[in-house]
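Comment on the following before class.
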Amino acid sequence: MKAIKTLIAVLVLFLGTSSVVNAQSKIAHINTQELLNTMPKMIAAQDQLKKLEENYRAQFTTVYQEYDAKLQALANLPETTPEATITSKQQELLQLQQNIKEAEKAAGEDIQKKQIELYQPIMEEARVAIQKVARAQGFEFVIDATSGGQLIVAKGKDLLADVKKELGF
């Protein structure tokens, strides 16, 4: 009877130890920001956004110059200018100023919309590649090691090089 109890105790300890070993998860990490910043598609998207911003900047430079010219013209009106003319020019300037604010807001929204349109598929491609590499290498968890992400890595595989290889760069 004592031998059976000892055998059961040893069996329980063995099974308990093996289940603890099996319960340990394989964890890897990757700096997704570094990955995204080095992806050729992301670099191309950033260049496209930069060109769009420069285009808007050029358009607004012309509008700002027009506004400044009208403001200067108003300031240089002779003192004999009728009050109705001055009021009319002030209203014109206020309307132009309001149009500029609305155009700036629309441009900002357009840039933001374009950024989402360009970045979202690239981020999804990176996510899918990370998942594919993690599954292929048997990792259950992948932690984002982006700066400021509060990751302290003692041991763990960095998947950055493997994901870049998966994406073809």
